[in-house]
Design brief:
Radius of gyration: 16 Å
Low-confidence stretches: 115-158
Strand order of the largest sheet: 3-2-1-4-5-6
CATH class of the largest domain: Alpha Beta
CATH topology of the largest domain: Spore Coat Polysaccharide Biosynthesis Protein SpsA, Chain A
Structural class: alpha/beta
Number of helices: 7
Distance between the termini: 29 Å
Mean pLDDT: 76
Helix content: 40-55%
Largest sheet: 6 strands, mixed
Number of domains: 2
């Protein structure tokens, strides 16, 4: 499963378009979840998100977007976690393109794909899984909630 996390703050004018785009991806919705973390909005953001029954809404006191992302990760069920912002309208193939490097990595030589990954990875994409890239590199199992910022891994291999 893939978890899409959107931290929001006073995004009532933007969030609906973002969610509509995410709900209309070209992969089956059963393969991903959408989590919106409202970071203490004072507008109608939460009420708008509640209209989307297939979207999980988490409300927290205002602590900033990083804390909102982290809260979303705590609730995420996916092995791959991707982030977007409320002012983004992802293309229909956005999720598919975001996970493609991981699928390629599994299918081919890990070293060759790490170089490819460094060319293609978006800074808002993280891995959260038992069989993570660090686990492959170190041959050590990692706990499920371990997050790897792939930008860091990219820098190591450039």
């Amino acid at each position: 499963m893939i978890s899409v996390i959107i931290p929001v703050y006073n995004a009532e004018k933007l969030i609906a378009d973002c969610l509509i785009a995410l709900l209309n991806q070209n992969i089956d919705f059963s393969k991903y979840e959408i989590i919106v973390v409202d970071d203490g909005s004072s507008d109608n953001t939460a009420k708008i998100v509640e209209i989307f029954k297939d979207v999980q809404l988490i409300i927290q006191k205002n602590r900033g977007p990083a804390a909102a992302r982290n809260e979303g990760v705590r609730h995420a069920k996916g092995d791959i976690v991707v982030f977007t912002d409320s002012d983004c309208i992802p293309n229909k193939n956005w999720i598919e393109q975001m996970i493609m490097p991981f699928i390629e990595l599994i299918k081919k030589s890990w070293l060759r794909d790490l170089f490819k990954l460094s060319m293609r990875i978006n800074t808002t994409c993280f891995v959260k899984t038992n069989i993570s890239i660090l686990s492959i590199l170190t041959q050590q199992p990692l706990k499920r909630k371990f997050l790897i910022n792939l930008v860091v891994i990219t820098l190591v291999f450039q």
